Amino acid sequence: MTGHRARLLCIASLLTIALGTPAAPAAEAYDPWPGLVQDIFSNRPMNDGNDVIGIEMPMRAEDAAIVPVTLRTKLQPSDSRRVVAITLVIDENPAPMAAKFTLGPAANVTEISTRVRVNNYTNVHAVAELSDGKLYVSKIYVKASGGCSAPAGKNVEEAKNRLGQMRYRQFTKSEQGPATSTREAQIMIGHPNNSGLQMDQVTQLYIPAFFVNELHIWQDDSPVLAMEGGISISEDPNIRFTYVSNGAKRFRAEAKDTEGHIFEHEWKVENPGT
């Protein structure tokens, strides 16, 4: 080996030591969404839904156990299609399908708000199924963690005493008439909605999953909204929504939970407290 070549090899070795071994390319982060499309939607084609369905959530949640989310339809009045159902998917949650909302054919629901648990930094997808049979998706990214395992806000005895209590609020403006006007209402259900990932602080054992998995809402006998819920819906489910009144005098709701309890209540539209 010549002295010149030896010097070059020595310099190369020193540079390798100084600079370190070149880093291997970073592995791409795993994206669960393609698998969720297969599992939840049977691999049906997904269309860009930015002009069809909007989703609003805080980018960084203050409390991962009660993250507010609003779903809003964007179809133009001239569009002959209607939104049949909206599915909310929290990609990184242990049970990603948070809820599926089925919209009453004559209720013209355009906005739904609720509160959800978020377990990890994640994409959240809203998938709207339209009357033409196609699916449209939009998404948002949320920074939150630990929501599914966060301790319940109420103790066991308090939660038991409030189990199934239902409240209804009407947000109609005083100048609006009872018929064919857009209104806003809210249904609240007292229920622990245990996720199955929470730990009893006394026994240190996991609390079994126990949550509201069905909710149906009618104005008189006309369906307004139905929800198929999962463990991602927060404690004491709270559903707020807009709808078009058909002149009904009464509002009623029926909820079921995973232990087979059925909760139902009926209210006067113009006087919810009775």
Write the layout of secondary structure elements.
Blueprint: H1 3-19, H2 33-41, E1 46-48, E2 53-56, E3 67-73, E4 83-90, E5 97-103, E6 111-116, E7 122-130, E8 135-142, H3 156-162, E9 166-170, E10 179-189, E11 212-219, E12 222-229, E13 238-246, E14 250-257, E15 262-268
Parallel strand pairs: 1-8
Antiparallel strand pairs: 2-3, 3-6, 4-5, 4-7, 5-12, 6-13, 7-8, 9-10, 10-13, 11-12, 11-14, 14-15
Domain Ig-like SoxY: 38-148
Domain Sulphur oxidation protein SoxZ: 181-267
Signal peptide: 1-26
Concise overview:
By secondary structure, the chain is mainly beta. The chain has 3 helices and 15 strands. The protein has helices at residues 3-19, 33-41, 156-162, and strands spanning 46-48, 53-56, 67-73, 83-90, 97-103, 111-116, 122-130, 135-142, 166-170, 179-189, 212-219, 222-229, 238-246, 250-257, 262-268.
Describe the model.
The chain is mainly beta and 274 residues long. 12% of the residues lie in helices and 39% in strands. The chain contains 3 helices and 15 strands. It has helices at residues 3-19, 33-41, 156-162, and strands at residues 46-48, 53-56, 67-73, 83-90, 97-103, 111-116, 122-130, 135-142, 166-170, 179-189, 212-219, 222-229, 238-246, 250-257, 262-268. A 9-stranded mixed sheet has the order 1-8-7-4-5-12-11-14-15, with no helix packed on it. A 6-stranded antiparallel sheet has the order 2-3-6-13-10-9, with no helix packed on it. Strand 7 and strand 8 (135-142) form a beta hairpin. It is globular, with a radius of gyration of 25 Å. The N and C termini lie far apart (100 Å).
